[in-house]
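Archive transcription. Copying these from loose printouts into the bound notebook so they stop getting lost. Printout 1 of 2:
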Amino acid sequence: MFDIAGSALFETVERITMSRNAIALYAVLAIALSWCVQIPAIMLFGLDSPVINNIFIFIMWSPTLLALVFILRNPAVRSQVLWRLGKLSYLPLGIVVQTMIGFAVVALLIAAGLATSGYFTFQTTGVVVSGEAWLLGEGGQSWVFFLINVSVTAIAFSIVGLLATTGEEFAWRGFLQGQLTSQFGVLPGIMLLAAIWWAWHLPALLMGYNFPEHPYIGSFILFPLLMVGASLFFGWLTIKSGSFWPAALAHGTVNSIQQGLIDNLQLQLPQLYVDILRTALFLVVGIVCLFLLRSCQHKKQAELYAAGAAGN
């Protein structure tokens, strides 16, 4: 249980939170390191080179490598890093929500007659599944078996995705979010993290990595909004669980099964509208989390992450 001793520990932690100058230095260095690798790598190899994927994995780990330097230089901060598993019940939630967003995009576009899926043919009695991505196989499946197939596949790919997303989420949610919320408050801190996360991605965005058909609209409108929605959801998961791991699994789901579902659509409308729909769904989830986080707005840092401490 989170007892008086645990409360005293967190009150001590609050007094040794990183200064705003230290937080700003970390953010600037994380963004600069990302840019200094992204820009020459993309210019040298191009976005279609297999080499660039390995470089991007290093970039995804760069915030954590930098965070470890800050932690080593300030050992007192180590006790604030949310690296334990926390409340286990939150681990699958990010996988479920992000998989549902992917299927919502697929379902809405198919229902509107604006796309077909290369993976699925939906029928009243079940689903015909195609493609080797689905771990329990292809062919005609009942709705129950189809849901099991999707669940097993989503969990597996999300866990594999941790090889990359842990590098970001240990730093953003496990290390930096607590520092920002302690210094600026819950919602301002999470919004600042969304802005840092957006800026960290910017060179690849401008060069067409996520939005090749509309890089400027994507870079300066859609992706910032997507970062707001994702940061609210990932931030809420982190606060409720007391751990960065649920956010890392959710991030892995976005990069794997959600992206795969959307990429496999045969579209009868411009990609821009699909990106707008996906961003809107992220914002819907984020707005729900915004209201859930409002109750945390006036809590002290000791109270904010107390539930996670109890789960550890």
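Printout 2 of 2:
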Amino acid sequence: MIPSGVPAGLSARSYGVYCYMVASGADWFTVSSLMEVFSDRRDGLNTTMSELIRAGLIASVERREKNLVRRGYRVVS
């Protein structure tokens, strides 16, 4: 369920990305996967992810796949 109201101090861009993450139902996201959906580039999405982490809406997570560690994000329940 998409929350109503924008948390204080959160930019419209960050709120839009957060709403997408909640509505998609996926369990985690990478900046690369979000770049396929949004027109923002890597730097802009990294800034957005930092803002959402500071707001307590998402968390940074690491996943191990064979010998590779991938950094991503998940929505905080």
